[in-house]
Protein backbone atom coordinates (compact mmCIF):
# COMPACT_ATOMS: atom_id res chain seq x y z
CA UNK A 1 0.00 0.00 0.00
CA UNK A 2 2.83 2.43 0.91
CA UNK A 3 4.62 2.00 -2.43
CA UNK A 4 1.39 2.40 -4.39
CA UNK A 5 0.53 5.57 -2.46
CA UNK A 6 4.04 7.00 -3.05
CA UNK A 7 3.74 6.32 -6.80
CA UNK A 8 0.32 7.94 -6.81
CA UNK A 9 1.64 11.03 -4.98
CA UNK A 10 4.54 11.25 -7.42
CA UNK A 11 2.24 11.10 -10.42
CA UNK A 12 -0.01 13.80 -8.94
CA UNK A 13 3.02 16.03 -8.31
CA UNK A 14 4.18 15.43 -11.90
CA UNK A 15 0.77 16.48 -13.17
CA UNK A 16 0.83 19.57 -10.97
CA UNK A 17 4.26 20.55 -12.29
CA UNK A 18 3.20 20.10 -15.90
CA UNK A 19 0.09 22.22 -15.38
CA UNK A 20 2.03 24.96 -13.62
CA UNK A 21 4.52 25.19 -16.51
CA UNK A 22 1.75 25.12 -19.08
CA UNK A 23 -0.27 27.78 -17.27
CA UNK A 24 2.81 29.98 -17.08
CA UNK A 25 3.44 29.59 -20.82
CA UNK A 26 -0.19 30.36 -21.67
CA UNK A 27 -0.10 33.26 -19.25
CA UNK A 28 2.66 34.82 -21.33
CA UNK A 29 0.60 34.21 -24.46
CA UNK A 30 -2.10 36.45 -25.71
CA UNK A 31 -5.33 36.75 -23.78
CA UNK A 32 -7.12 36.26 -27.12
CA UNK A 33 -5.70 32.74 -27.39
CA UNK A 34 -6.81 31.90 -23.86
CA UNK A 35 -10.33 33.19 -24.59
CA UNK A 36 -10.54 31.26 -27.87
CA UNK A 37 -9.52 28.05 -26.11
CA UNK A 38 -12.08 28.59 -23.36
CA UNK A 39 -14.85 29.57 -25.81
CA UNK A 40 -14.16 26.43 -27.80
CA UNK A 41 -14.17 24.04 -24.84
CA UNK A 42 -16.64 25.39 -22.25
CA UNK A 43 -19.43 22.96 -23.11
CA UNK A 44 -17.12 19.94 -23.27
CA UNK A 45 -15.72 20.85 -19.85
CA UNK A 46 -19.24 21.32 -18.47
CA UNK A 47 -20.17 17.76 -19.49
CA UNK A 48 -16.93 16.34 -18.03
CA UNK A 49 -17.35 18.38 -14.83
CA UNK A 50 -20.86 17.09 -14.36
CA UNK A 51 -19.78 13.45 -14.78
CA UNK A 52 -16.88 14.01 -12.38
CA UNK A 53 -19.18 15.59 -9.77
CA UNK A 54 -21.64 12.69 -10.06
CA UNK A 55 -18.90 10.06 -9.71
CA UNK A 56 -16.84 11.63 -6.96
CA UNK A 57 -19.11 13.98 -5.04
CA UNK A 58 -22.48 12.29 -5.29
CA UNK A 59 -24.09 15.08 -7.31
CA UNK A 60 -27.80 14.20 -7.57
CA UNK A 61 -29.86 14.46 -10.75
CA UNK A 62 -32.14 16.96 -9.03
CA UNK A 63 -32.00 19.27 -6.04
CA UNK A 64 -34.53 21.33 -4.15
CA UNK A 65 -33.85 25.03 -3.74
CA UNK A 66 -34.63 26.93 -0.51
CA UNK A 67 -37.92 28.15 -1.97
CA UNK A 68 -39.03 24.55 -2.62
CA UNK A 69 -38.49 24.73 -6.38
CA UNK A 70 -36.89 21.64 -7.97
CA UNK A 71 -33.75 22.23 -10.03
CA UNK A 72 -32.79 19.69 -12.71
CA UNK A 73 -29.02 19.25 -12.33
CA UNK A 74 -28.85 16.43 -14.86
CA UNK A 75 -30.55 18.70 -17.43
CA UNK A 76 -27.82 21.26 -16.76
CA UNK A 77 -25.11 18.67 -17.42
CA UNK A 78 -26.91 17.67 -20.62
CA UNK A 79 -27.15 21.32 -21.75
CA UNK A 80 -30.93 21.00 -21.81
CA UNK A 81 -31.13 17.92 -24.06
CA UNK A 82 -32.86 15.14 -22.06
CA UNK A 83 -32.49 12.64 -24.90
CA UNK A 84 -28.73 12.58 -24.15
CA UNK A 85 -29.29 11.09 -20.68
CA UNK A 86 -28.75 7.48 -21.74
CA UNK A 87 -25.50 8.29 -23.56
CA UNK A 88 -24.42 10.44 -20.61
CA UNK A 89 -24.98 7.51 -18.22
CA UNK A 90 -23.06 5.19 -20.57
CA UNK A 91 -20.10 7.60 -20.55
CA UNK A 92 -20.26 7.79 -16.78
CA UNK A 93 -20.25 3.98 -16.55
CA UNK A 94 -17.28 3.72 -18.91
CA UNK A 95 -15.32 6.18 -16.79
CA UNK A 96 -16.29 4.37 -13.60
CA UNK A 97 -15.06 1.07 -15.09
CA UNK A 98 -11.76 2.78 -15.89
CA UNK A 99 -11.44 3.89 -12.25
CA UNK A 100 -11.62 7.51 -13.39
CA UNK A 101 -10.09 9.65 -10.66
CA UNK A 102 -9.13 13.26 -9.98
CA UNK A 103 -5.80 12.94 -11.82
CA UNK A 104 -7.57 11.62 -14.93
CA UNK A 105 -10.19 14.34 -14.61
CA UNK A 106 -7.61 17.14 -14.46
CA UNK A 107 -5.72 15.77 -17.47
CA UNK A 108 -8.86 15.27 -19.54
CA UNK A 109 -10.05 18.77 -18.70
CA UNK A 110 -6.77 20.22 -19.94
CA UNK A 111 -6.91 18.04 -23.08
CA UNK A 112 -10.37 19.46 -23.81
CA UNK A 113 -9.13 23.00 -23.20
CA UNK A 114 -5.85 22.77 -25.11
CA UNK A 115 -7.27 21.92 -28.51
CA UNK A 116 -4.58 22.82 -31.06
CA UNK A 117 -7.21 22.80 -33.83
CA UNK A 118 -9.04 25.88 -32.53
CA UNK A 119 -9.21 28.48 -35.31
CA UNK A 120 -7.37 31.76 -34.97
CA UNK A 121 -4.88 30.87 -32.26
CA UNK A 122 -1.73 32.95 -32.64
CA UNK A 123 0.53 30.92 -30.33
CA UNK A 124 -0.35 27.46 -31.60
CA UNK A 125 3.08 26.06 -30.71
CA UNK A 126 2.51 26.64 -26.98
CA UNK A 127 -0.93 25.01 -27.17
CA UNK A 128 0.46 21.97 -29.02
CA UNK A 129 3.31 21.63 -26.51
CA UNK A 130 0.87 21.92 -23.61
CA UNK A 131 -1.44 19.33 -25.15
CA UNK A 132 1.45 16.92 -25.74
CA UNK A 133 2.79 17.44 -22.20
CA UNK A 134 -0.62 16.71 -20.70
CA UNK A 135 -0.98 13.59 -22.84
CA UNK A 136 2.44 12.39 -21.70
CA UNK A 137 1.58 13.13 -18.06
CA UNK A 138 -1.72 11.23 -18.39
CA UNK A 139 0.05 8.25 -19.96
CA UNK A 140 2.65 8.20 -17.19
CA UNK A 141 -0.04 8.63 -14.54
CA UNK A 142 -2.23 5.80 -15.84
CA UNK A 143 0.71 3.41 -16.23
CA UNK A 144 2.12 4.24 -12.79
CA UNK A 145 -1.07 4.32 -10.76
CA UNK A 146 -3.33 1.92 -12.68
CA UNK A 147 -1.24 -0.91 -14.17
CA UNK A 148 -4.20 -3.24 -13.53
CA UNK A 149 -6.52 -1.25 -15.83
CA UNK A 150 -5.62 -2.37 -19.37
CA UNK A 151 -5.39 0.39 -21.99
CA UNK A 152 -6.72 3.01 -19.55
CA UNK A 153 -4.87 5.81 -21.36
CA UNK A 154 -6.22 5.02 -24.84
CA UNK A 155 -9.71 4.37 -23.48
CA UNK A 156 -9.74 7.76 -21.72
CA UNK A 157 -8.64 9.45 -24.95
CA UNK A 158 -11.38 7.66 -26.89
CA UNK A 159 -14.00 9.16 -24.56
CA UNK A 160 -13.00 12.75 -25.44
CA UNK A 161 -14.73 12.71 -28.88
CA UNK A 162 -17.85 11.28 -27.23
CA UNK A 163 -17.89 14.15 -24.73
CA UNK A 164 -17.37 16.60 -27.57
CA UNK A 165 -20.27 15.09 -29.54
CA UNK A 166 -22.62 15.41 -26.56
CA UNK A 167 -21.53 18.99 -25.93
CA UNK A 168 -21.99 19.90 -29.61
CA UNK A 169 -25.57 18.58 -29.55
CA UNK A 170 -26.25 20.58 -26.41
CA UNK A 171 -24.82 23.74 -27.97
CA UNK A 172 -26.97 23.27 -31.06
CA UNK A 173 -30.04 22.86 -28.84
CA UNK A 174 -29.21 26.05 -26.93
CA UNK A 175 -28.61 27.97 -30.15
CA UNK A 176 -31.95 26.87 -31.62
CA UNK A 177 -33.71 27.93 -28.40
CA UNK A 178 -31.92 31.28 -28.55
CA UNK A 179 -32.89 31.85 -32.20
CA UNK A 180 -36.50 30.99 -31.36
CA UNK A 181 -36.45 33.60 -28.58
CA UNK A 182 -36.96 31.06 -25.79
CA UNK A 183 -33.55 31.55 -24.14
CA UNK A 184 -32.12 34.72 -22.58
CA UNK A 185 -29.83 36.56 -24.97
CA UNK A 186 -27.71 38.73 -22.67
CA UNK A 187 -25.91 36.04 -20.68
CA UNK A 188 -22.35 34.78 -20.49
CA UNK A 189 -23.59 31.42 -21.77
CA UNK A 190 -24.99 32.98 -24.95
CA UNK A 191 -21.89 35.11 -25.35
CA UNK A 192 -19.73 31.95 -25.25
CA UNK A 193 -22.09 30.18 -27.64
CA UNK A 194 -21.95 33.03 -30.19
CA UNK A 195 -18.17 33.40 -29.86
CA UNK A 196 -17.67 29.74 -30.73
CA UNK A 197 -19.85 30.05 -33.84
CA UNK A 198 -17.85 32.99 -35.27
From TrEMBL:
<dbReference type="Pfam" id="PF00104">
    <property type="entry name" value="Hormone_recep"/>
</dbReference>
<dbReference type="GO" id="GO:0090575">
    <property type="term" value="C:RNA polymerase II transcription regulator complex"/>
</dbReference>
<dbReference type="GO" id="GO:0004879">
    <property type="term" value="F:nuclear receptor activity"/>
</dbReference>
<keyword id="KW-0804">Transcription</keyword>
<dbReference type="InterPro" id="IPR001723">
    <property type="entry name" value="Nuclear_hrmn_rcpt"/>
</dbReference>
<dbReference type="InterPro" id="IPR016355">
    <property type="entry name" value="NR5-like"/>
</dbReference>
<dbReference type="GO" id="GO:0000978">
    <property type="term" value="F:RNA polymerase II cis-regulatory region sequence-specific DNA binding"/>
</dbReference>
<dbReference type="GO" id="GO:0009888">
    <property type="term" value="P:tissue development"/>
</dbReference>
<protein>
    <recommendedName>
        <fullName>NR LBD domain-containing protein</fullName>
    </recommendedName>
</protein>
<keyword id="KW-0675">Receptor</keyword>
<feature type="domain" description="NR LBD">
    <location>
        <begin position="1"/>
        <end position="196"/>
    </location>
</feature>
<keyword id="KW-0805">Transcription regulation</keyword>
<dbReference type="InterPro" id="IPR035500">
    <property type="entry name" value="NHR-like_dom_sf"/>
</dbReference>
<dbReference type="GO" id="GO:0009755">
    <property type="term" value="P:hormone-mediated signaling pathway"/>
</dbReference>
<dbReference type="InterPro" id="IPR000536">
    <property type="entry name" value="Nucl_hrmn_rcpt_lig-bd"/>
</dbReference>
